[in-house]
Each structure stands twice: as structure tokens, then as C-alpha cells.
Fold:
Amino acid sequence: MEHALLTVNRLKTYFYTEAGVVPAVDDVSFSIQKGEIVAIVGESGSGKSVTSLSVMGLIEEPGKIVGGEILFAGKDLVGMSMKKMRELRGNQLAMIFQEPLTSLNPVFSIGNQLAESIRLHQKKNKREARKIGIEMLKKVGIARPDKVYDQHPHALSGGMRQRVMIAMALSCNPQLLIADEPTTALDVTIQAQILRLMKDLIEESGTSILFITHDLGVVAEMADQVIVMYGGQVVEQADVYTLFKEPKHPYTKGLIDSTPKIDEWKEELVSIPGTVPGPFEFPEGCKFADRCPFVMDKCKAERPTVTKVGKGHEVRCWLHGEKVVDLNERASFT
Amino acid sequence: NDEEDGEKDKDTGETADIGGDERTLTIAVGSDMVTFDVHDHINTSTEAIHVNMFNYLVKRDNETGEILPDLAESFENIDDLTWEFKLKEGVTFHNGDELTSADVKYSLERVATGEELKDYPNYNQIKEVEILDDYRFRIITHEPEPVLLNRISRIASAILPSNYIEENGFDHFLQNPIGTGPFQFVEWVRDDRIVFEVYDDYFDGKNEEWDQLVFRVIPENSTRVSELLTGGADIAVNIPPADWDRVADHENTYLAQETSNRTLMIFLRSTEGYPTSDQRVREALDLAIDNQAIIDSLLGGAGVPTITRVAPGNFGYAEHLYDTYNYDLERAKELLAEAGFPDGFEMTLHSPRGRYLQDAEVAEMVAGMWAQIGVTANIEFMEWSNFVELRNANENEDAYLLGLGNSMFDAANALDWYSADRFEGETDYRNDEVEELLAAAMTNMDLEERNEQYIKAQELLAEDAAHIVLHMESINIGVSEELDYTPTMDEMIYVDTITRK
Amino acid sequence: MPQPSIMQGPARKNSKLKRWLKLLFRSKTGTVGLVIVISIVIIAIFAPWLAPHEPNVIDPVNTHKPPVWMEGGDRENLLGTDNLGRDILSRIIYGSQISLLVGISSVVLAGIIGILVGLFTGYFGGFLDTFFMRLADSFLAIPNILLALVMLGVFGPGLFTLILVLGVTNWVQYARIIRGEVLSIKERDFVRAAKSIGVKHRNIIFSHLYPNVISSFIVVATLSVASTIILESSLSFLGLGIQPPQVSWGTILSDGRDYLATSWWLATFPGLAITITVLGIIFLGDWLRDILDPRSVK
Amino acid sequence: MSEHPLLEVRGLQKSFDVTKGFFKKEKQYLRAVNDVSFTVQNGEVLGVVGESGCGKSTLGNLIVHLHEPTAGKIVFEGIDMSALSREQLRRQRADIQMIFQDPFSSLNPRKRVFDIIAEPLRTHRDLNKEELQQEVLDLMDLVGLNRSFLNRYPHEFSGGQRQRIGIARAIALRPKLIICDEPVSALDVSIQSQILNLLKKLQKDLQLTYIFIAHGLPAVKHVSDRIAVMYLGKIVEWTTKEELFTNPMHPYTEGLLSAIPIPDPTKRKEQRPLLEGDIPNPVNPPPGCKFHPRCPYKTEICMQVEPEFTDKRAGHFVACHHPLGAEKQAEKKL
Amino acid sequence: MNYFLKRILEIIPVLLIITFIVFTLVFIAGDPVALLLPEDATTEDIAALQAALGLDDPFYVQYGRYVMNMLQGDFGTSFRYGEDAMLLVFERLPATLELAIASILVAIMIAIPLGIWSATKKNSSIDLVATGAAVLGKAMPNFWLGIMLILIFSVTYSIFPVSGRGSFAHLILPAITLGTGIAAEMTRLIRSSMLETLGQDYIRTAKSKGLRTGIVVYKHAFRNTLVPVVTIIALQTSTLIGGTLITETVFAWPGIGQLLIQAVNNRDMAIVQACVMVIAFFVIVMNLIADFLYQLLDPRIRYK
Ligand SMILES: Nc1ncnc2c1ncn2[C@@H]1O[C@H](COP(=O)(O)OP(=O)(O)OP(=O)(O)O)[C@@H](O)[C@H]1O
Ligand SMILES: Nc1ncnc2c1ncn2[C@@H]1O[C@H](COP(=O)(O)OP(=O)(O)OP(=O)(O)O)[C@@H](O)[C@H]1O
Ligand SMILES: [Mg+2]
Ligand SMILES: [Mg+2]
Structure:
């Protein structure tokens, strides 16, 4: 798609650790349209954060992007000079992180940190930056923003801090906002507030969001497009309605089924057997093979390739080789 | 090297200036002065500084040992207990007050009666000072005191300004001391420097050589030597043997040496049960030591081997026992065998470390020499205060190393170390004949006879090998090539004798 | 399913050792450190066989002989001789015994006191804790070397006193570290689990807390061995270190200080020995910190 | 025996001294648990939910006696625990066990699996080596751990497996009551349901009684018989699970329920009511009803008078001046 | 503020414990009388002086007297100098402080750049060299370094004066001698503290804002690194003052260190006590200041 805001193409990010090479992101492709919310969902260690950090150019030793391209507004971010990258970062590309407790520098005031990128990217002086900063704080629903502006992070609650992070990220009107599990550390009631806030702000500004989470509930609430990751690979992607209605990858199906639902009453919960293997313990063929109820010999032998199973619906699974299988008709997990 | 001195001026001139200007004499000393209370310290190096601002009534000639007048113009012995003195007239303290008999009375009686003063034990022989008039007075002692003149020519007999002290208090005096000497006090920065300036009205004539006199305190040997070499100091005292060559060979400096009045000895324990209680063993131990070898290899040849503590210049000096030593390994082994130790024995040698010139090294060498006759000496080195304690507690074993000075320059002081009562439980040496001689000499005002008594005592002690006398130490002073200075046996630094070439 | 035996222990331990060694050889400095430390320990143990001469034999003829590669030096005394003609190499080899002995045993002594105090005060808190912390503050406010100086001045120098003194002056630092660790570990759930099970305090302290604090002690302790060796040389400088005829690097070094300008080798070689040892110990300590750090145990 | 409830908590209070400074005249207290009363019957599961910091863990710690209560009574099997001597208390600990939230900090990293599971047995039972090993192996079977893991260290396991080890330790003595303090919050979704299923199964098989603490309602929903909702140290609602989900009476419960994201994009609740604001600082709680600053239904009385905790309906206790159900019923009546 | 009052009040028991420790030690050491008298003093002389100085009283009487006097500002009289011990100590204090401050500055000037540099270039050869240098600095005993510096810079090249206190030039060699050892310790600690900080989330946040590496390192990371470093510097005061003992001796620097060594050798109880009290007080005050700075630098603590 040529008009996509961000296109990630066959991205590979490996970590060269002392214990061996960790293929944290292994052949990942997706794209984000303008104004769209794309969610990446997956369990811990599936490579969600590494994907987002790769886009931001924040992968550090011993990690390295070893293949693929990341096209942002037509320009490849892989191999872009540090200087150019810095101009994009915080300006057109912004990011918020999972831990509101630790993501703000404890020794500087909120205002100081907020003004930093405004002054850097919008070339404003201190007074103007302060005005914009306070304006932003107000926008993210912080009461008495002028007071909070001069406070230090530790005077604020987790929810407030996450709001500050959002204000900081949006202060320069980025085209793409990457949110790496922004609500995981928060209480449900606060999570609901933050999610709504993000949605409202996006509607206003038309910013795209790459939303990372491991909670399918949140995905269902927020996303337009969904990418499901497992073991560093995209195993399925589709628009949110299709994905929840007709999951094609057994893993997706397992995730959906094992997500607790408030309106369902069951004797036994559905769960995916086994655990996510460590970085070096994935099976030879399909990375999901030894947890999959539909596993076939082929799965164990060969890495599956991506199959298109519908409009904008892709899945990395051998099951759909000849014909697309409807997983909903099979009692897959117990 | 000596002939070249004259031509070197250019080189040395520059560096010498680091220490101060031309007319300032800077002397680097190893430890700080203790106090200006001349009666309350026992510190030779403090006295070495004091002699430049205080005077005694009489002074000892370092060459001849003769007692010469200083503040006193004349003195005479009236009877066994009384000496009469006449002061020089026109002697002034640094504040201009004239010296009178009252000052003498105050000074000497203060130390003779002040029990808490550290020099009290050496002055409590004086009963009183009787003033006859402003310039004449008598010193009366409790008992006949043959060495009175020696006593008052040394530490703690400086004459203090009684009026000044009475008016301002002693504390004020300590802060702003004045004396009668050639230099007057300017400042004392503790552990750093003591500064004096020349006193114009010095009764013996103003010192024309120096305007200012600075004693700098530099405890670390190598630093002190470095200061000397770089011209930061004109004179540096206590140069360690390690640096003698360096100082002597350096183009800006030379090493001035003199035999001191300090004897290095090994005290032996004569207590029943110790092998050293046997005269033969003691003699054997003495015979096994090659004194000259120690001097040559550890002291760079500087030092005089001796059998007695009483050196030339001291009253009671026994010439035939000085600058000689006994060394005979074969005889030593024989004696040991006779005493019942054909295979030697094991003993303990206590030694201080860093107190005397090369003390630890000497102890190790002595032990090495004893090993040759089969005696194994286990050396226990001790930090000074522990060493003192050990001796006070009589916990010393077979032997210990000690260096003894004698600022009295009288055999009485030196030989008191063999008196039985005093060392009961410590060395337990007793020789009745010596006891008698010492007691008789103590109050004998017939100097001739007294001299004989002391020489006799020394002969007896040598025969008995009471303790082992090793050698007289040397005084080792580094001097700038620009100066003339000859150290004196008493370890004082008389600035009046230091001149520019 | 075959019955797995508890006796699998040693096999797993072995693999742990292998893992450590693997980690060790991956770290260049760690390897260097270990090699240095092992060599020095070997030298210390086998000193009597390795040293070419007796360390205390005086040779008045051959004093101040320079090392072999300098003019005047010869093979007999590879690193030259000192002011009494003693062979410097032999003295350094023998000196390693005392230096290591002082370093290690004083740290062990301090460690035992410090660990016990730290464990108990940290775990129980209360008055005892307050008291010990004030005591610790007091000790910390007196510089180590000063306390050692005063104590050695009091008790007189000597090997045994030195170890005792260094041990007594250093325990505080361990007690503080251990206490801090205990304070955080005792809030961890596994300690609370043990408490909720009803495990006795003593068992909690020794089987739950102790194994978890010991590694941070080991890291600090390795480094303290190094500082102690240096401290001993400083005390020797002040005349309060090891007394002859025992030799330590510190005493050789400070004996040689008067000769730095004339016979530099007297002080330089023992100094070098200290430097190399300290370097080795620090490298080893850093490596230990890396592998003993629970965060690195993945 | 059965005449008493297994556990009865009456007026339980726990205050922490959080006074800052030495000379403050007034001491400051944080009432982490504030006048809490409830009963747990033998064989039932009580779920406790509430936002972070509302005092759930403190409550659990009080019951296992890791904290001393400031006031109130804990009666276990009819015996007042405060009346027990230290040794009796230590013995009694065998009957009440705890499962912790963080599977990483709850296992001693320096101990082997065997020693961890064996610890309670060693403490309370006198077994010889073989018996001990047999017992541990049986426990491992019970919680679904491979027997070959016996000599491994905790760090060699994934979160889910660690949690199983923790469970094995807790059930080793067949306690009568187990406090589960958020046992699944730290786990991946796919693993969460495994553990929940396991807990449920063990409860049934071994006739255990649980107090099951959780952040959010979905987690407790499956295992609990009854649920207590906590807010700022107080229980605000306490009733059966079915009643709570179908008929929440406290506005806070309602807010919690509506904040839960639904994993179904077709059911997006675009404009559902959300709770506003943060939890107040527990050191200075608001007067009157603690919830009033966030309550959409608050009236004058809520700001002044603290509502009583009473049963508004049979077995449905609420602390609210304007319980929702009551209004509904009132409406119905009208 | 109350916190500080509490901290300040805590000094009192600490100082009391210190007097007790030192007093006990010196008491066990035995009295100094024997050292005060000549080598040929008699037992009677010793007893007389002991009684005159009140040294024949039992321990608790002496200690009680000491504490009572101390509370009245009287720290005893030096046996050796016969002067007020505390005055003597205060006289030397400026010299020691001058040296200590100069050394800290030297240490900071070496350690901060070196520490940051080796942290940002972790595992590079620069890092290795810096670590090596730090270790070397730690391993060289102070006296050896001091004497070497004198031999090189004063004797051979005549760049700096050999010893003594006076001009700025006099300060340089001793400050380097003392500073190097501390710099070594500090470098290692700054490096590890910096490394830890660089791994924090907020550093990633700062980077994600597009800030230059310089700003990220020197603004965001350094301010946070300072917090532990300030504490370390305070903790090093004790080591530092310990180091002056030796450095002062080597450079004939007229400070507390020299006074103290002589006092210990002479059993000059009053001076040892006074020195230890002053040093301990100084160390404690430094720690208090560090605490204060800590709060200034780390707002987290303020809100705790
Ligand atoms: N700095 C690193 N060094 C080595 N491996 C790393 C590093 N960072 C990430 N990895 C590995 O990359 C993989 C993916 O990590 P990532 O953080 O992207 O997971 P995630 O999906 O974000 O998980 P979570 O939900 O826990 O945040 C993991 O297996 C992890 O071990
Ligand atoms: N030891 C303590 N000292 C002081 N305050 C404490 C202590 N333990 C807990 N608190 C406070 O008591 C309140 C309740 O804490 P508690 O841990 O019980 O909450 P929780 O509901 O379990 O929260 P979470 O969901 O985060 O585990 C919190 O405000 C907490 O800060
Ligand atoms: Mg992540
Ligand atoms: Mg909790």
C-alpha cells in the first residue's frame, strides 16, 4: 500500500547475547494507515516491544536490525543517520512506555521534561514552551496543570504520570504514536480512562497509533487492525472484527478463548497448554507446534509461511494450506 | 670535591633561593619542637632549637669538656653544698629587660621544686638559689653535687625572664617566649615551622650572618633530604645512612658528621635462671660481635666502637676502653662451652625500631653474629611506647637494645645504669664493688679522686661484661655547599657557628 | 517414569561449575584476574620451595645489589638485594604469605562479625538494630587507618593483632551491607512464605536470608582483601605493620622507602606485587559481581 | 466444628505508622484495612477484589498472621487467634497457607524445587528422607510439575511453573485455608487459565477453602463462590458471585464492571459510564463515604456520613447510602 | 526539616560511643607517663607524675571526668605540649581541610570524566584503560606515590616545591597523592552508577524524544548518577581523612594527621581523643550534608 504511513517489511531484529543469538523479531511485516489504530498483541517475550523499539531506532547493544525495512512516510528508517532519526523522534514519531513509574526522569520537573522536546522540535523559547506544555497537560485531563507542570514525577499517581507521558508524546503532533502497553501497570478504572483519552485525542489530531498490549479485551476496545505475534513472528493479522470472529491461527484462537469474559460462565476455563518456550527452546518447525492442538507432522518439520486467507487477513499456519479451515467449528482447546 | 666549591656558586645560587632569601637560614628538622616551657620537656631536638634563643649560666666546651661562663661571668665553689655565681652585666631579654639574679632564682627554683615538670628529677638536687645582689647569687644543693656545673649547662637550665612571666603569666610566655639568646621568637606554626629573627642587642654581639632563622619540620626522611637537595633547606638533620652518599655526592650539598654522645648498647639480664646471668655467657656474647663490621656495613663507617659509655669530653672518660672492642669467636665458643652451653642456646632480643640510627638492622646483624656461636636470638621488634612499657613492667627477656645519650657529659649519669637498686627486676645486675665506687663518687667533691673512681668502675664493668656496649652513634647532618657548619657532639644546633662561605 | 533421585545434586553442581567457567573465560578480565589470584596463592603456598634464598639471611657484603638486568646485578639475586643484602625476590615470595594471610583472614573475621550482626539486626530490627546502627555510624566516622593506628598503638603491632584490628575495623562495612540486603530480602515473598509456614526465625535467617546475602558479601569481601593488603602497607609505613622477621609486601615496601632515590628496586618490586595482586583481585571481584548478581542468573 | 464458620473476621483493622519526621506532634496513620468483617465457610471460595492499594494484601497478611492487627478479631475454627501463644500460633500456621502474586520473589532463588516444597513438611512433620521425597514427588504430580524438575533452581522455570511450585508448597500440609494473593496477575493470559483451573481443581479434590485476592473481577469470577469488593481499606460490597455480577449494588462495583474491556469488538461500549479520578491518598481519606469523590450518585449525606455495612438484601452486604439495586427495586415497585 | 533535626540529634549518641571506644582503647594502652620522662627516670618519678596528672584513678572515674569536662568544652590538656588539646587540633584543622578539599577536587576532576567516559563506552578499549588506571591508582600506596612524585617533580625537574604548606604550588603534589587513591574508588563507582542509570527507562524516554546523546548522558543520566556519587564522596571523607595521615607525613603538611600520629606514638590521650572527635564530627557532618544534597538532587525522597 503506497499511502501507508508506516510500512514494516520483513523486519529482523536479533540480539547477539552471550548465550547465543536471540531472534527477537523474525521476519515481521505490517503497515499502518493514517489515522488508524493498529494493535500488536502477544504474550510476554513475543517481540512486541522490540518491534516498536526497532521502529523508533532505539535498539541497543547487543541488539541489531539485521534485515528488512521500515518505511515511514516513504523514507527507510533502517540505516537512517542518527541526526535525521533524532529529528523524527519525538517529533513525528513519538512513544509512550509501559511503566509510568520509571519512564519519567525522577530528578527533573514534569515541565522540564515536557518542554524539552517542545523546545527542541518546535524551536520555542522557555516561556512559549511552558505555555504549550501547560496546554497539553490540560488536554490530557490533568486538573491544575500549571501546578503539576512544576512538580516532580513522584508527586503524581501512576495514572497521572501516564497522562503526562501522553502529553509529552503528543506535544509535537506526531504522525505516529507508539504505545507500548501503556495501561498494563494501571488499574482497570484508570485503564479505561486512559484508553478513552487516547481515543479522543486521536480523533482530534488524526494521529496513527501502534498500540501494543497483551490484553485482547483492550484490543477489542481500541484497535482497527490487529497483529498477533508469537515467538518474534507475526502469526496472524486482520482487522479487528474478522480476527475476533474468525481467528485462523490456533494461537489466536487460544488467546481469545482463554481471555476471561465477564458474561460467560464456564466450569473450566480454556487455556493453551504448555508455556512459551525460552528464546532458544522454540521447536524447529512452527514455533507454536508443541502447544498446538492441530499440530501436524509438517508443522514440526517446516516453518510455516504466510497465507492470505481473506481481505487483509493473513496467517502463518500450515492448517490453511489447501483450504481455509474454520477453527471455530473445532473444539480446539480445553 | 672540596676544591671545587668556589666555582659552583652560580648553580647553587638559584636553587638555594627557594628556601627563602639570602639572609635566611632554613634548617630542616625531623620532629616539631615540643614546647617553649624549657622545664617541661626531655626532648633533645627541642633543646637544639632552644639554644638559639635562651642561654644557660655556663656552657660546656664541646672540644675540651671544660665548663665556660655564659650568662655567668664567673663562678666558684664555696663549700660542698654551695656555688657562688656572678652574672654578666648588661645582658638583656628580648623585651629589653635586664637579666638579674631574680631571673636565675625564678628559673632554677621553678624546675627544682615543680614536681609535675618533666625535668624535675634532674634538678631536685638544688635546694635554693640565694640572691646576694642583682648580679650575684648562690646555688645551694641538698647534698654535695660534683656535677652541678654540668647540670646547669644543659636542658632545662635556661634562664627565663621572671618579670615578664610574672606580669603576663606563663601562658603568655609560652605564646610569646623571650630569652636572652642571639635570636628572638617570631612565630611557631606547629608541625610546620618555627621562625626566629636576629636579636640586635645580643650580649655576645649580634649575629651578622643571618637575619632570619627558620626551623622546618619534615618528619619523612626522604622528603627532608629532597628539601636539602633542592635548596628548600640549607641544613637538614638526621640524614639516614641510605642518603649519605646522595647528600655527600650532590653538587649542592655535603654531609657533616660528628660522633654523638649516644651509645648503642645491648642490655643483658643477669636475673637468676637466664643464661646471661653467667658472666662467661655475657662475655661470649660480647666477643661474638664484630662491632666494626656493624659500623662499616650499616653505618657507612660512621660511628665509634667502644666498650664503655663514657666518651671523650665526658667527665670520667676512660681512654683505653674507647674506640676499641673485643671480638674473638673462638674464645666466645670456649666460654660458652665452659658455661655449659656447648651447643649454644636460644634467647630473646627486644629491639625498638626506628628510634635510633639503623636500630632494627643492628639488632638483626647482632643476631646473625650470635648465630655463629650457636646462640639463636629471636628478635622482637617493638614500637617505642610498647618497648618503654615492656621495660617498665620488667617483662624484658634475655636482652634488649637501647641507645643512651648523656647530655650531662658526666660518668655519673652513664654509669647509673649499672646500679643494682634501680634495675631490680629489670636487668638484676649487681656488682658490689661497682656499687661502692658509684656511691662514693656521687657526692665526692674531689674531682681528681672522683675521676679515678669512675674509671675503675668502668674497668670492672668491662671485665664483668655487664652489658654489651656496641658503638657511639654519629650525628649526620646535610649542609648546603654554601655554608660552613660543624655539628657538635651534644646534638645542639648553634646557629652562631653556621656561616656562609 | 524413572524415579529421579535427589542424588542428582553433584551432577547439576558440576554443570553449574561449567557454566561459571564458561562465563569466566568469556570475560577477559575475569580470566586474567583468576590467573593472577591463583598464581599468587600458589606462590604463597609453595614459597619455601619457590624462593631461591632464605628471606631473612643477611649478607653484609652484597647490600643494594641491583636487579639482574642492571649493571652490577647477577643471577644470584634476580631482583637485587636490599640494605641488608637480603634477596628481594625471596622476600617478595615469602611476603605473599603474610600479605594474603592478613588480607584474607582479617576479611573473614570482619565478615563473620559483620554477617552475623547484619543478619540479626536486619531481620529483627528494634532496639538492637538501632543500637548497632549507631555503633556502626560511630565506627564509620572514624577512618579505618586511624582506628587501626590507635588500636595497634595500644596493643602493639604484630601479625595476630593486625588481623584482629583490621577485622574489628572492617566489620561495620559488612554489617551495613548485609543489613541493607536483609532489609530488602526479608520483604520478599519467599521470606514471608517461610514465615507463614511457621519456619523458625533461626532457620529463616540461616537458610533463607544467609544464602541470598552471601554473594554480595563475597563481592565486597574480595575487594576488601585488596584494600586490606594496601592498608597493611600503609600501617607498615607508620611502623605499625608486620614486624620483622616476618615479611609482608607492606614491610618490604616501607623498608625500601628510604632508598627510593638510590636503590629504587627495594620499594618498587613489592609495590608492583601489590599492584598486580590488587588488579587481579579487583578483576576477579568484578567478575564475581557479574555472575553472582541474581539479575545475571537467568 | 461445623457450627463455626471456618474463618470469621470481625472489625479487623490495620494501621501503619507513616508519620514523617521525628517531632511531628500528630502521628499519621495509614489505615490499610479499616474495620473489615466477614466470614468464610468451610469449602467455599471468597474472592476479594479492588484497585491497587486498597488493602487486599494487608488483609491476607493479617489472616496468615504476617501482620499484627491493630484492632479486631480473627477467629479461626472458633478459636481467637490473638489468644494463642507463640508456639501454638506457629503450629496453627500449618492450617493457613498463602500463595503469592509474584512467582519470582516468592521462591528463594538459592533453593532447589525439592527444598522449597519440602520446607513446610520439614517444619511441621517428622518425615524420614524417603517419605519426604515421596511426599514432594506426589505434590509435584498434583500440581502438574514434571518429576524431573526436583533438583532444579527456580530461575530455570517459567512464571507459570513457578506458580505451580508455590502452589505445591502451599498445599503440602493440606491446610484448611489458603490465601491466594493475586496468584495469576503476573502471568500471561494463556497461562492464567491453566493456573486458575488448577486451583479450582485442587480446591475441589482436596476440599480446600480459599480467600482469592485479585485486582479485577474477571480473575475471581471463575473460582469464587462469594466476592468482597474493597475500596480504601473497607469492604464496600459482599455477596455471592452471581448476585454481584448481575446485581451490583455499590456504584464502585458498577464502575469496576463497566471498566472491564470486553474481548469482542462488536460489543464496544462506546459511551459507557466511567469512574473518574484516582483513588484518594489513603493517609487522608475523604470524610463520609470514602468513595464519594468519584461517585456519580453522590448526595449531601455521602460527604458527611459514612454509610454502614449492612445487608440490603439477604446475603448481600453493601456500604452505600444509595445502593443501586435498591433504587432499581424501588423503581420496580413504583 | 524534622528529619534533619532527627539526624542531628543522632550525632550525640554516635559521638558518645566514639569517645567511649577511643577512651577505652587509650585507657587499655596504659598511661603515657613513662614516655614523658627521660629514659633514666625512676619508678618514683613515674608514680609522682602519674598522681600529678590524675592517671591513677580507675577507668570510670577518668572517663566520667572526661565526659563531664567535654560537655563543658574542655577536651583535656595535651601531656606532650601542655596545651589545650582541642585548641591544638583546631590550629591544624585548616591545613587538613585545605588538603582534603583540594584532594576531593582532584579526585572529582579525574573520576567524573573518566567514570562517565568508560560507562558510555562500556567494554571498549577506553573503558579498559580507564578501569586499569583506576585500579592502579587504588593499588599504589599513598606514601610510595608521594615520595615518587617528589623525586620526579621536585628533585629531578624542580617543578613543584618538595614539601610544606604555603603557596598553591605546595598544594599540588599532596593533593594529587591523596586525590588519586580516592579518584580510583570514585571512578569505579561512578562508572557502575552511570551504567545502571543508562539502563533506566527514563533514559529510553529521553532518547525517544529525539534528544542528542550529549543531553541524554549529561543531563538525564548524570543528574541521576550524582545522587549515589554524592553519598560516595561523603562516605569517602573517612578514607580521605585517613589518607591525610600518611600524605601529611610525607609532605610535611602541618595538619591533623601528623599531630595524630605523634599523639598516638606518645600516648597523648587528650589529643587522640580530640582529633578523633573532630574527625568523626567532620565525617558525620559531611554525611549530613550529603543527605541534604541527596534530597536536593533526588526529589523522590522529598515526596516519600
Ligand atoms: N536487550 C536484550 N538482550 C537480549 N535479548 C533481548 C533483549 N531485549 C529483548 N530481548 C529478547 O527479545 C525477545 C522479545 O522481547 P520483547 O521485549 O519484545 O517482548 P514483549 O513482547 O514486549 O514482552 P512483554 O510483554 O514482556 O513486554 C525476548 O525473548 C527477549 O528475551
Ligand atoms: N508495611 C507498610 N507500611 C506502610 N504502609 C503500608 C505497608 N504495607 C502496605 N501499606 C499501605 O497500605 C495500603 C494497602 O496496601 P496493600 O498492599 O494491602 O494493597 P493491595 O490492595 O494489596 O494493593 P496491590 O493490588 O497493589 O497489591 C497501601 O496504601 C500501602 O501503601
Ligand atoms: Mg514489552
Ligand atoms: Mg497486593
Q: What stands out?
A: Residues 251 and 288 of chain A are 7 Å apart (CA to CA). The pocket of magnesium ion (ligand 4) is lined by residues D 56-57, 181 (CB under 6 Å). The two ends of chain A are 40 Å apart (CA to CA).
